Amino acid sequence: MKNDQEEPAKSLAPFIKRTPYANPLWPIHLFFNKKFTVHRFLGLVYLVQYLVAWRMYLTDYEGFAKSPLIWAMPLNGVVQALSATYYFSFLPKKADPGYYSDRSALSYDFVKENIFFSSILLWQWVYYCPTFYGPLTTGRVLTVVEHAFVFLPYFFRDLVPKTSFRASMKSDTNKTEGNAYFFFIVTHVTKLFYLWAKWYIGFFFNYLRYLNLVNDNQRREMYRLLLFSAFATTVSMFLHTLKFKGYMGPRTAFLTYMASYLATFYSIVRLYTLFLGQTPLVGITLVAMLLNRFGHLLVGKNCLAMLGGERAPLLGQAWQLVTMGLLLGVRSGYFGMEMLSRVLIATVCAFGAWVF
Length: 356
Known about the structure:
The protein is mostly helical. It has two domains: 20-273, no CATH class; 278-356, no CATH class. It is 74% helix and 0% strand. The protein is built from 18 helices and no strands. It has helices spanning 2-17, 26-31, 37-59, 61-66, 69-87, 108-128, 130-138, 140-151, 165-170, 180-210, 216-244, 250-262, 264-270, 272-277, 279-294, 301-307, 314-332, 338-355. Helix 11 runs antiparallel to helix 12 (250-262). 29% of the residues are buried.
């Protein structure tokens, strides 16, 4: 009888020990531990910045739009990614990110990969800020930076390693049996979202800003979308820490992450007029997305081998150069938006003839 009474308490001991409510000093242990001091402290600063940004956005938008948070918070996100790369070099280097599972360790390649994603998020914050937009579009040197980030960011994607959704889903050892189906579903959903986000939250909204087609009210909604994106890009890494330390369950942590990126569709719906009013840009972005994803099917295997593998994205990248030339022509006044529609129709006809 004595053993029967003690067993439940014993089985709950690890859970109680690692629950933050059991120790009121848990934030101090989490953020002010002697290990990884700079990374922990700047992580706390980022969380404070993020909460203050939301508060100002909702209660004092004009103050928010003029505040240093517009650039300081996403810049701190890049610094967080860099410091994580410095401190966590002991993590395994593997194609499986380790994030979309409950058993696998986080991949060091995934940590380094976040440098790229936090950098392009920083770019979008800065690009939509009127203070920076003028110099970026008129300065001779800065306009080179503008064109690189608007049209060609994935040309320097290989500066950091790549992880793979495919590797995560194929692994039979990175998920517990009870969570295997859950992570199989949510990883597929996340993969589809990444495809959408890369081309429409990324490229499409950059094209709109490049042509100065976003008004003040739409820019306000864009800031909300970027706040959601900041959570999905940087705060999501903190969720993994909470999961690893036992403060959150694996499903709770991942569903919180999912909620942050799915919340971007709230802003997408509110920005629907940009999609309906700029259909040539929507179409050009769609062509780029399809070429990047399925362009390898249009060329032979020998050509693919020469280009670097089974899914060489050369056609998608070439289309980005075409898009840059077209939008530069529109912005410079050489031709109007109707030219985009003509090129789009000609491209669809050309690929239709190629395929059929």
